[in-house]
Design brief:
543 residues; mainly alpha; 4-stranded antiparallel sheet; 67% helix
């Protein structure tokens, strides 16, 4: 039975359906509205003019205003719509449902997508009831480190493990916030002790949550989608508490608490699990940067890690040691430790460079930037995920910008832009436009096959005013693309571009070149009767 979809699209479409279901949150009001609006447009029959291209499917959606959608079937994240929405929009969803209906059941997809909601509500209600049962008036007690740890551990066990069962990943956040409310109720009343309690609580809760994720056997993708933000929030909360504590005089009574926290923080590094490894190492680095500032403490910790390193030269231990050397201003030791590492070290450079930028230590920053760049290039060569690569390039550009601006190193900035293409395209596009490097700018559009219609009218007008000859190849490329699609509408678009191209040639006093181009084009397309007719209608040739 012919379902109207070329066979080569069937498997990618199934994969796309799975990814869309995973990435849209059935519990989020915005995603619910997105799916609902897309469903309405599809069911009203407003998806028209489906065309199957090499890696994408294009369609028109007749919404209040007609829009053009291009769904990339291999990576729907880079799909486009002519509407103002920046991310996935209702028009993309309408086209997705149209395609899904040709080979599957839209209703089944919707039902499967909404399935977790009922179970989540049941578990959340159970968690709320248990939290109310456990909630008590906070007794006035002297601060006690062991009592605090017991409070965190017991409440975590009681709330997060529902009747001894492991909850589904999509209910973890709900239960976790119940846990946070409970332990906050036990916080000391005095401000300085409350801050210390929250800092210690953040670190221990981080480790409890990591152990919980391991025991639940949630996959990396499930953690990332449903509750990775909890680890990130705990890390940010720790930074806030450390910042506030640093702004006040710390009482001597804090000393045994800080010593315990300092000793137990090593567990963040002495850890073989790869679950939330980056966040765990980052929490360790922040503790030693913001809170454990005494040189003797750092040297003592470094000796502890050296001993650990002899039996466990893991990435965690390596970065932990490198960070302590960084804090002790021993940069050569940092580079020696990571000299033979692979691209897994790449994400850990950014924190060091951010710190040096903030301190305006430009000489040190230069060394770390020069060391980072080869690692970043290797990461891009090895990593297959386009979005991870794009995110990395964005971080690289953000972290080197202060240094390049301060030291007037535009050459370094442009070098990074060229070496990280295509992921740096939009940044390089803006850079060349800002500095009016028009020839390079046009070459960039051609290199990445950017369509003329994807370039803003403002930029085209500015280029026409500055270097009109550089517009010619862009129009030639766009015209050939439209003709290649072989549809009446695209022929009309090609003729419009040809009319503009004729004006450009005349403006440049190149009428003979225009006549030669037109003659060769008409000869090569003489079998395309519809195109020839559109050329006549556009008065490019006479009947």
């Amino acid at each position: 039975m012919d379902n109207g979809i070329p066979e080569r699209f069937l498997e990618p479409l199934e994969d796309m359906a799975r990814k869309v279901k995973e990435e849209l949150d059935a519990h989020a009001a915005t995603d619910q509205a997105l799916v609902q609006k897309g469903l309405i447009l599809y069911r009203q029959g407003l998806v028209k003019q489906i065309r199957y291209e090499s890696h994408s499917i294009t369609a028109a959606v007749l919404d209040v205003n007609r829009v053009q959608v291009s769904l990339n079937i291999e990576d729907y994240h880079i799909s486009r719509c002519s509407c103002p929405a920046e991310d996935t929009c209702r028009h993309m969803m309408a086209v997705f449902f149209y395609l899904l209906a040709k080979n599957n059941s839209v209703s089944n997809w919707i039902e499967s997508w909404r399935a977790p909601i009922k179970e989540r509500k049941t578990l959340a209600d159970l968690g709320l009831k248990r939290a109310r049962d456990l909630m008590q008036t906070n007794p006035t007690k002297q601060p006690d480190y062991d009592n605090w740890i017991r409070t965190f551990t017991e409440n975590f066990q009681q709330i997060m493990y529902q009747s001894g069962q492991y909850p589904k990943p999509y209910v973890v956040s709900d239960l976790f916030y119940i846990y946070l409310r409970k332990i906050n109720a036990y916080a000391p009343i005095k401000k300085e002790w409350k801050l210390l309690y929250q800092l210690i609580g953040s670190m221990h809760t981080f480790m409890l949550l990591e152990q919980f994720a391991t025991e639940c056997k949630h996959s990396e993708k499930e953690i990332e989608r449903h509750y990775l933000h909890l680890f990130q929030d705990l890390m940010e909360e720790s930074s806030v508490m450390m910042e506030r504590l640093s702004q006040q005089t710390v009482p001597f009574a804090f000393d045994p608490f800080i010593e315990r926290l300092r000793n137990e923080a090593t567990a963040l590094i002495d850890h073989r699990s790869e679950i939330v490894q980056f966040e765990r190492i980052q929490l360790y680095r922040r503790l030693w940067t913001q809170f454990f500032k005494q040189k003797s403490w750092r040297e003592e910790e470094l000796e502890k890690l050296r001993t650990l390193y002899e039996t466990d030269a893991s990435l965690s231990c390596t970065i932990g040691m490198a960070h302590l050397h960084f804090l002790l201003h021993d940069d050569q030791k940092v580079f020696q430790l990571i000299d033979e590492g692979d691209y897994d070290y790449t994400p850990y450079f950014f924190y060091w460079i951010y710190q040096l930028n903030a301190q305006k230590e430009w000489k040190r920053a230069e060394q770390y930037i020069e060391t980072l760049l080869p690692y970043a290039i290797k990461y891009l060569e090895e990593e297959d995920d386009f979005h991870k690569c794009s995110d990395l390039v964005k971080m690289v550009l953000e972290v080197i910008t202060p240094y390049c601006q301060q030291t007037k190193r535009n050459d370094l900035y442009e070098k990074v832009l060229t070496e990280t293409l295509p992921y740096s395209f939009y940044y390089y596009d803006d850079f060349l436009y800002e500095y009016e490097q028009w020839e390079k700018w046009v070459d960039l559009q051609a290199l990445l096959s950017i369509r003329l219609t994807d370039i803003s009218q403002e930029r085209l007008e500015r280029l026409e005013k500055a270097e009109p000859t550089l517009l010619l190849p862009l129009y030639h490329q766009a015209i050939q693309h439209d003709i290649h699609l072989k549809s009446r509408e695209q022929y009309r678009q090609a003729v419009k571009k040809m009319q503009k191209l004729r004006s450009l040639y005349e403006k440049l006093s190149l009428a003979s070149e225009w006549e030669q181009f037109l003659e060769e084009l008409l000869e090569s397309t003489k079998r395309l009767r519809a195109f020839q007719e559109e050329c006549k209608r556009g008065k490019l040739i006479h009947a």
